[in-house]
Amino acid sequence: MTALDPAWLARTVAIALDEDLGPEPGRDVTTQATIPPETVGAADLVARQDGVVAGLVVIPEVVGQVAARLGLPVPTVDHRVADGARVARGDVLAVLTGPVQVLLVAERTLLNLASRASGVATHTRRWADALDGTGAQVLDTRKTTPGLRALEKYAVRCGGGTNKRMGLYDVAMVKDNHVVAAGSVVAAVEAVRARFPDVTIQVEADTLAQALEAVAAGARFLLLDNMPTQLLAEVVAAVRGGELSTGRVELEATGNLTLDRAREVASTGVDYLSVGGLTHSSPILDLALDLEPGTTSTRR
């Protein structure tokens, strides 16, 4: 499972802290007024719901940046579970120990990021479980929260899903508007191949004729959009029937997919089901940071 890029994580956490604390170094007027900087303690990161966790890897970065802003020691983070783990309500996910000012200033930022990622991972795991044994995989889309795409796609991986393209730069996806602008599927595919010969080309189709036209144009990855199950099965059969001459064509079902249809759609023989809702409609997984009793001050 590809890790988060450290440079991206550092930038994202810095932006999140600026949003919460004001420009660096920022301030938390409540915590800094009520808790001496010498006060040390421990806090448990706890799951308040059953689910799959993701984003726990952000915690050390958050507490490290907060400690640097406050000029205090960096708390230790003892992870009790790893990203991708199934957890139950009440499970302790990590124990953070250090200056209480740092713990409380960091609390909301680390919860926002980890709860969001864990919600995506939990939702994705439901799809991955529904498709288990079918041979099909669940894919994400670019329907992500601006600025959090790397985290949300990481969370999809934690939940057992697969990332599609990361952006507009790494895969060409010829959709209906591109076909209209270029004049035809063939013209669009040829234009991409001429300008960007190094990229994979994917073509959207919503009819059997469009799918076969795309394959004839050289596309080896088709997005079968908003097709009823029967039509989807017909398209899969037609495309698979020509693979002795065309070579393997990857097929993705997309549009209006629901969990209760997942296995039915997978049974048509598609390779993938892409689900925008993994990232645009997943509720958070409720997590909490609870300060343990016995917090002490080192002030003399």
UniProtKB/TrEMBL annotation:
It catalyses: nicotinate beta-D-ribonucleotide + CO2 + diphosphate = quinolinate + 5-phospho-alpha-D-ribose 1-diphosphate + 2 H(+). Pfam families: QRPTase_C (PF01729), QRPTase_N (PF02749). Pathway: Cofactor biosynthesis; NAD(+) biosynthesis; nicotinate D-ribonucleotide from quinolinate: step 1/1. Residues 120-290 form the Quinolinate phosphoribosyl transferase C-terminal domain. GO terms for cellular component: cytoplasm. Its EC number is 2.4.2.19. It comes from the Bacteria. Residues 28-118 form the Quinolinate phosphoribosyl transferase N-terminal domain. Belongs to the NadC/ModD family. Involved in the catabolism of quinolinic acid (QA). This is Nicotinate-nucleotide pyrophosphorylase [carboxylating]. It comes from Cellulomonas humilata.
